[in-house]
Amino acid sequence: MDTFQAFWLGLLQGFTEYLPVSSSGHLAIGSALFGIDSAENLSFTIVVHVATVLSTLVVLWREIWQLISGILKFKWNDEMRYFVNIIISMIPVAFVGLFFKDAVEEIFGSGLTIVGLMLLLTAALLAFSYYAKPRIREEISPLHAFIIGLAQACAVMPGLSRSGSTIATGLLLGNKKESLAQFSFLMVIPPILGEALLDITHLFSDSAVVNISVAAPETQVSFTSLVVGFLAAFVAGCLACKWMIGLVRKGKLIYFAAYCVVIAIVALIFA
């Protein structure tokens, strides 16, 4: 992977991480178009995912600081209730990560057919949530947090958008649009950082070092490419995060459903 490819793949990851169009699906399509085996570039995937998490921390720093300040009061308040809901939402994806990580990694290496099909499912979820009759609730309940967490766990499938699945699920449950985008973005921070830590551990384990050392030169990612990909993903993630929060409030998700259908067709053509 050269710096040009790293730049565009970083932009692709950053822009699509928060939009309901599946960053993993776009990264798989982009890698395929560049002739890159994404499974061979674990370090690059880790770097761009961490970059998008950091963009969330930058964009939502006020909300995060308010949440931390409320938790540190060590009493049952709105911030503690919100934090508990985030913990509850993490249970399903933690279960998948602990017991089905190898199966998920095999799916990621199974080609673009599964990406195209999951993009079509993302489109269906977005369309259904757009036309469903709203039942507005003031706050996300623990039960709804768990169900939204189930949607996030299902979104480990390449092509099934995490933000699209969680936001659409929350809308179908009748939760307020204003709170869903923020909750969707905050709930993913611990799982992504935890997964990145596990991947880094694997990357620098003895077996991983051996695999890297014998890999073909074209599968290696230089330090410059990692930096370029990180910066591109971080800047794009900041822009996309701000944009997505506004779009959810305005209820414009139906346009992304149409976009997902188009990209799904592209994926299936190149599968």
List the main descriptive attributes of the protein structure presented here.
0% strand, single chain, mainly alpha, 14 helices
Describe this structure in a few short sentences.
With 271 residues, this protein is mainly alpha-helical. It has helices at residues 3-18, 23-33, 42-59, 61-71, 78-99, 101-108, 112-131, 142-154, 162-172, 177-187, 189-203, 206-213, 223-250, 254-270. The radius of gyration is 18 Å and the shape is globular.
What do you see in this structure?
With 271 residues, the protein is mostly helical. The protein contains 14 helices and no strands. The protein has helices at residues 3-18, 23-33, 42-59, 61-71, 78-99, 101-108, 112-131, 142-154, 162-172, 177-187, 189-203, 206-213, 223-250, 254-270. It is globular.
What is the element layout, followed by pairings?
Elements: H1 3-18, H2 23-33, H3 42-59, H4 61-71, H5 78-99, H6 101-108, H7 112-131, H8 142-154, H9 162-172, H10 177-187, H11 189-203, H12 206-213, H13 223-250, H14 254-270
Helix pairs in contact: 1-2, 1-3, 1-13, 2-7, 3-11, 3-13, 4-5, 5-8, 7-9, 7-14, 8-9, 9-10, 10-13
